[in-house]
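Help!! Second protein's tokens look totally different from the first
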Amino acid sequence: MGRVEAVNTAEPFSSAESRLRAVPPHALVATAASLLAENFGAEDVTLLLADYGLTVLQPITHLPHTSDPVSAHDGPAGTAFTTQTPVVEVAAGTTAERVHLPITVRGDRLGILSVGVPAAYADPAAILRLVEFATALGHEIAVAGRDTDLYLQARRTRRLTLAAEMQWQLLPGRGCARREYTIGAHLEPAYAVGGDNFDWSTSADHLDLTVTDGMGQGIDASLLTNLAVSALRNARRAGLTLADQAALADQAVYAQYGGKVYAATLLLRFDLDTGIVHAVDAGSPQLYRLRDTGIELIELEAQLPLGMFEETPYEEQTFEVAPGDRLVAISTGVHGTRSATGDVFGERALRQILSATRQTPPHETARAVVAGLIEHFGSKDLVSDAAVICADWTGRGIDTARPISTGS
């Protein structure tokens, strides 16, 4: 009876958050376990983080070490991660239950918090509080990444190449969610990526989204992409238009490499009120729009990649998205990859996957595209990097108030 009473008399949720914030980064898991024991009678708490390839969930034990991983797509924990909903697992022959809780920060899926609690604590109200706790823990893990390598190390099933290390540090995350849109992204080969990158930035009225493909392989491609993306961010943060962002980045890349190498980039800027999208196609990434049951390649004016020639002028185009639309942006390593028989992935197989995954969340669609690419190519050892961004557009209603925050 005492434990049931503890659910109702537990310390305020804000106090639990403050205790998480107060501990050093390496102590987050132990502190979370203590708080859950105090407030929910939890006897077994495990933090599982998704690995870079989104194939497994790594149970975090004595950081930076992990115990045996579990699938990120199957089983109770994998189902909770894929569906982004809590999953309650009943332990056979006991009165205990295990609750698997998604840890997601503003649409970026980090992993699962698995909590063993007495059955009396698995009612809907308690699970809601557990979900809130998992979200708070996720925010602290994300912030802790500024001060410690522990959680980044724990996500790895093997060592990253230096080029991949640079690329993952450059990425904004693998997802972003707001009332107007939900973004999911995937990158392969996750542990050896070189030149592919995706980026986004959200504000009160706009969403900026880019896909960049740096020429070359390994560290050379990573250095090139880092320069191009940093130049684009510098121009964006200066308030420049998309065309001027592309022009500034073009000059930066040309000044460094003299036209010997270049970066292909697709730049998009969404008006959250109207759904009008400004676009600059500076190279080879492709963009598909799924509307109702149709799939169309959005034909944009092909302009020169960044850094190919000195002072290249760029022009913006516009198109429109409507509520319910899905946009999928892919790098050259996706649409240009050929099978052993010479079939280009983007011509047929890609459309089949996009159609089959129309109702799945953007994260899972992005992952499915890369999985289909690997099957099409016949090997996990892709010749070129592959970047995929999937965005579901909800938009704003006429009377919808301007949001003051993003995601969870």
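Here's the second one for comparison:
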Amino acid sequence: MVAPLRAEIAGEAGDDLEQVGEWLTVPDAAELMNLPLRAVRQLLQERQLVAVRRGERKVVSIPAAFCTPEGPLNHLRGTLSVLADSRFTDAEAIAWLFTPDDTLPGTPIAALAANRKTEVRRRAQALSF
């Protein structure tokens, strides 16, 4: 049951990430989080944030929901680590975080924003089996 879900998510990530909604460029994310550009690039390098290249010019884009005025969304880094352990690409991880899940209810990213990391990570861990 998990394998078809994984394939469905991979297809969504490869085809379209429109469910994400708002995206930020690195300079926009830096402004929102009140950080220098180099700090945002460091967050990307350390995988506290993830991004994909989008659009005609392939601009590095970060989902706006990942960024808060205080910095990266709380609990995002650990969840991204769990998804990476399940061999998700950055695009697949983003797609999964924004895919509605009736058992949460809502999306995993909304659950993280509501400080429900345990529920989200439990589901993310199940994807690797």
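Reply: Different proteins will give different token patterns, so don't panic. Confidence is low (pLDDT under 50) at residues 1-15.
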